[in-house]
Amino acid sequence: MIDPVDPLHEDDLAEPGVLDPSLHARRARLPEAAVLCFFPEVVAGFVEAGARRLTRLSSERESVVWEIEVDGRPVAVVHPGIGAPLAAMTLEELIAMGARRVVAVGGAGVLVPDLVMGHAVVVGSALRDEGTSAHYLLPGRVVDADPYGVEVLQRTLDAAGLPHVTGRTWTTDAVYRETRARVERRRAEGCVTVDMEASAFIAVARFRGVRFAQVLLLSRTSFLPGNRRYWPIYEAAAEVGIPVGIHAFGNSGWPVSSSGWPSFYMEEMIGHSQSSQAGLTSLVIEGVFERWPDLKLVLVESGFTWAPSLMWRLDKHWKTLKTEVPHLRLAPSEYIRRNVWWTSQPMDEPENRRYLADIFTWLGWDRIMFSSDYPHWDFDDPARVILFPATDEQKHAFFVGNAQGVYGSR
After folding, report:
1. Residues 6 or more apart from 361 whose CB is under 8 A from it?
2. pLDDT digits 0-9 by tens, 253-277
3. C-alpha distance from residue 332 to each of 116, 177, 223, 228 (Å)
4. Number of helices and strands (H, E) in the chain?
5. Nearest Cα to 102, choosing from 4, 225, 197?
6. At CB < 8 A and 24+ separation, what contacts does 53-61 make?
7. pLDDT reported for residue 247
8. Domains of the chain with bracketed CATH
9. Spatial CB neighbours of 64, under 8 Å, sequence gap ≥ 6
10. Can you give the pTM of this predicted structure?
């Protein structure tokens, strides 16, 4: 007889799983404190700075657990993988190897327009629109985060002077089924962000009896990045000498175009380069690079083949309209050449690859850093990126040297 109960509503929480994570996980013993970091460039920075390799997770062949030291105490750091099932497996294995206090740091889409770049969102609760959490908790629409973890994150962000809010996130499995009607319903239920892992993380941590907290950082926003409300971020970054990275994706509640919502995903994908151009124009014209000449800006996953034509257009209009922006003492292209770097993915692929070589030369081989975007479906294979004549010195700069120059080496 077929059980009429929805599979996600079956109650077998008291039974052990066939696969025990304590047996499935590697035998390494981890520090009790762990960070699940969704930003691969940050993890790579720790590695460059000398992080110690601890183990490789069995749940994801490419996930290596690293150990860093914070205030004299060891902390495990790993990229958890994208999506609730894989992220939950990662957390399960960390717990099996000794992690007891875990913080997740990642990005999220924005559902309300008053959240802006630079604000962190401490996850206070999560709406469970995914399937993984149902295998750890009884059915329910919302799961509350660990109050202790929330309080610790709030205190930490306050002490660091970082703007933040505490709110509800909508955790979903289906990126391409975030309909407008559903987005409006989630806003009505108090969700301020959308992500793919938070409710599963909370469920696993509660089921296994460990401390967990999560902070989400926002991407594409409702104010252009040159706006003065962001200037404290640039000032702080320039003062301590760290680069600011702006990722092309995300959702601020506003369309990617200047004239309405697109109908197809392809339009959205192409629109990211348009929004990146608008953001870079804002940073230049508002005077961010004039005010902080040592600031390093990295445009992540924005493409870069559009940059030459934008720089030509900016210089042309600056020559005739410079009286409107007397604070700009250099031509716009000079600020971009001095202060901006690009990651390579997504790399445009013209039929004649020499056209791409011309753009590398025009922007400068010291301005573009290789990025694969692995494991996404459209990732760039490093063996098939430079399919045009280039010297060994140029290739080394592209694959290694530029990133070391921007982010620092060990």
Report:
1. none
2. 567 777 777 788 788 777 778 888 8
3. 25, 40, 21, 19
4. 14, 14
5. 197
6. 54/28, 54/30, 55/26, 55/28, 55/30, 55/97, 56/26, 57/25, 57/26, 57/89, 57/90, 57/93, 58/24, 58/25, 58/26, 58/93, 59/86, 59/89, 59/90, 59/92, 59/93, 60/86, 60/89, 60/90
7. 77
8. 7-218 (3.40.50.1580), 228-407 (3.20.20.140)
9. 53, 54, 55, 56, 57, 78
10. 0.64
Round the CA-based radius of gyration of the chain to a whole number and report it.
Answer: 23
pLDDT single digits (tens) 66-85: 999 988 899 999 999 889 99
Q: What's the confidence (pLDDT) of residue 372?
A: 81
Residue 130 DSSP symbol:
S
Which residues are CB-contacts of 145 (< 8 A; sequence separation ≥ 6)?
Answer: 123, 124, 125, 126, 202, 212, 213, 214
Residue 395: CB atoms within 10 A of its CB come to 16
pLDDT in tens, 101-120: 999 998 888 888 777 655 78
CA distance 166 to 88: 23
> How far, in Å, CA of 162 to CA of 116, rounded?
13
pLDDT of amino acid 107 = 84
Angle at 164 between CA 161 and CA 168, to 5 degrees: 160
Tokens of 259: 């004239």
Give the pLDDT score at 43: 86
3-state secondary structure of 73: strand
Q: Are strands 297-300 and 244-247 parallel, antiparallel or unpaired?
A: parallel
* Residue 76 pLDDT: 94
Strands 101-110 and 211-218: parallel
Please state, in angstroms and as integers, the Cα–Cα distance from residue 330 to each residue in 292, 297, 334, following that order. Answer: 13, 17, 6
CB 292 within 8 A of CB 235: yes
Give pLDDT, residue 1. 45
Q: What's the confidence (pLDDT) of residue 102?
A: 95
* φ, ψ (nearest 5 deg) of residue 137: -135, 155
Contact 204, 128 (CB under 8 A): no
Two tokens, residue 365: 């081989």
Indicate left, alpha or beta for 263 from its phi (over 0: left) and psi (-120 to 50: alpha): alpha
pLDDT lower than 70: segments of the chain: 1-5, 24-27, 59-62, 116-118, 217-222, 249-254, 375-377, 409-410
